[in-house]
Design a protein that fits this description.
By secondary structure, this protein is of the alpha+beta class. It has 5 helices and 8 strands. Strand 7 and strand 8 form a beta hairpin.
Length: 157
């Protein structure tokens, strides 16, 4: 008899626990039409979108709300979702080491700068392969093909 009553008690109890959280879920996202004045909505050209296009844009915004493009210090935030992964690419131009304030242009369009003092000489290479790996506390380490040392870097573009 007790086993038969458990589901009858458990389900209403669970609903009572979830009920207060429903308004929070409902308020997490509102559409662009709800958030903008009709004049701003029209000035942005959003009134020209089809209902499906507007729905797709709202869905995209709902899944990207937490993206922060600039830090409190005004610096760009490139990995706001903390999905920092190692990657390989190539440096553009000639490389022979670093001297304390180098900028490194990569063929994927990114620009990284040396984030630590110090200098290191490497054999000169053109368009070398580069591996950039995430490190603890948000830092990055760059390894350049043919160079036996890595250098701590930070992305600027």
């Amino acid at each position: 008899m007790i086993d038969a009553m458990c589901p009858r008690i458990a389900i209403p109890f669970a609903l009572c626990l979830l009920l207060p959280t429903l308004p929070a879920f409902a308020q997490q996202f509102s559409s662009l039409e709800e958030r903008m004045s009709s004049a701003d909505f029209k000035a942005a050209g959003l009134d020209k979108l089809s209902p499906d296009e507007l729905h797709n844009l709202d869905n995209w915004l709902a899944t990207h709300q937490q993206v922060k493009m600039v830090s409190s210090g005004g610096q760009p935030v490139f990995y706001a979702d903390n999905k920092r992964e190692s990657f390989q690419t190539h440096m553009v131009g000639t490389f022979s080491g670093w001297s304390g304030s180098n900028l490194f242009n990569l063929n994927n369009g990114q620009v990284w700068k040396q984030a630590e003092s110090g200098a290191y000489s490497c054999p000169e290479v053109t368009n070398p392969s580069v591996t950039i790996k995430p490190m603890v506390l948000g830092s990055w380490l760059m390894y350049v093909e043919g160079c036996n040392e890595g250098v701590r870097v930070e992305r600027v573009k």
